[in-house]
Design brief:
Structural class: alpha/beta
CATH superfamily of the largest domain: Zn peptidases
Order of helices and strands: HHEEEHEEEHEEEEHEHEEEHHH
CATH topology of the largest domain: Aminopeptidase
Radius of gyration: 20 Å
Distance between the termini: 41 Å
CATH architecture of the largest domain: 3-Layer(aba) Sandwich
CATH class of the largest domain: Alpha Beta
Helix content: 25-40%
Strand content: 15-25%
Oligomer: single chain
Length: 338
């Protein structure tokens, strides 16, 4: 099942150079389809435009389940619309800098081929697309889900194909900034239970992942709500997402590849059922206070909650989500905590 291969910066640059926006992910989707064809990987696209890959069906036996990697194909950079129309790629430039004991690091930025000005590189989430494809280079048995329109409210994953996920044992998405980032709660949805956390924690720590976080939204939010397997979302080396100054740290993208590789090698072809905890009522029945401070092990959880709500609102607003939908997402987040 396991193959050791080296990482390829040119492959990463190629993926990052492909323009994509919410509602027009055609160039990225076509690229993944060609990759699947070249590597003999089963694939299909649903009516929404989501793309699904399956590798190694001939190797599967009774009682085995697929690992599933996840990324979204869209970005927020609408100034790239004209590039998609003309099928023109972004210009990717690299530079190096020294970061103390970490040694020399490489960053990537994008420039618009017409203006030659820096523009968003779309690491959110083309870094995730790259990491997922690297997982297909490394494993003989794997599924991959590549969703559309995540940036405007997870519209693609809301219509995920149930049949595709029937034999999935767990899902790992690569869609968070930096490398040391693990989404534990996403828009009020607990992505994995404590048993699964115990199973993966040491492996994540070995790969430099120690920061468990409460975050706004990404596609595994929908998968964790719809299905019975544990999900996970990891940082994959992009920074200043949703801005023209966005950049990618190559070594941190490669850290994400190593983490995905180690996790799948450890978890294998097993199913990890998500033991979902019944949600507490939003209001305390005794004192009608929205906050029950005794339920928190540390008081700084309240500060983290406030920061997370702010992040949710800002991200949704910047993505063009209307006020009613923003209110719903914040309410869903609060219900997930109580």
């Amino acid at each position: 099942m396991y193959k050791l291969t080296t990482m390829n910066i040119d492959f990463l640059k190629e993926v990052l150079s492909i323009p994509s926006i919410s509602g027009n992910e055609s160039m990225v989707r076509d690229y993944i389809i060609e990759y699947a064809k070249d590597n003999g990987i089963e694939h299909y696209t649903d009516e929404k435009g989501n793309l699904y890959l399956t590798k190694g069906s001939d190797y599967m036996t009774s009682g085995e389940y697929y690992p599933c990697v996840v990324a979204h194909m869209d970005t927020v950079h609408r100034s790239h619309s004209d590039l998609i129309g003309s099928k023109t790629n972004l210009i990717i430039e690299s530079s190096t800098y020294s970061e103390g004991s970490n040694g020399e690091m490489t960053t990537l930025i994008a420039k618009h081929p017409k203006t030659k000005q820096q523009t968003g590189i779309g690491g959110d989430d083309k870094c995730g697309v790259y990491v997922c494809l690297e997982m297909f280079n490394r494993f003989d048995v794997l599924k991959g889900a590549f969703f559309v329109e995540e940036e405007i409210g997870m519209l693609g994953s809301k219509e995920a194909d149930d049949d595709f996920f029937k034999n999935v044992g767990y899902a790992i998405q690569f869609d968070a900034p930096s490398s040391n980032w693990i989404s534990e709660v996403c828009s009020g949805v607990k992505l994995f239970d404590e048993e699964f956390k115990s199973e993966i924690k040491d492996t994540l720590n070995e790969c430099g992942y120690t920061n468990f976080s409460v975050d706004p939204f990404t596609d595994v939010n929908q998968l964790a709500k719809k299905y019975d397997f544990n999900c996970l979302n990891l940082g994959c080396g992009y920074y200043r997402q949703h801005t023209n100054s966005e950049y990618v740290v190559v070594e941190e993208v490669f850290d994400s590849v190593r983490a995905g590789e180690k996790l799948i090698s450890k978890l294998k072809l097993e199913k990890y059922i998500h033991n979902k905890v019944e949600k507490k009522p939003l209001l305390n029945e005794v004192n009608h206070s929205i906050y029950d401070f005794d339920s928190y092990e540390e008081y700084d959880e309240i500060d983290k909650m406030a920061e997370s709500i702010t992040d949710i609102v800002v991200d949704l607003y910047n993505s063009g989500i209307n006020e009613d939908e923003i209110v719903k997402e914040v309410a869903n987040y609060l219900r997930g905590l109580y």
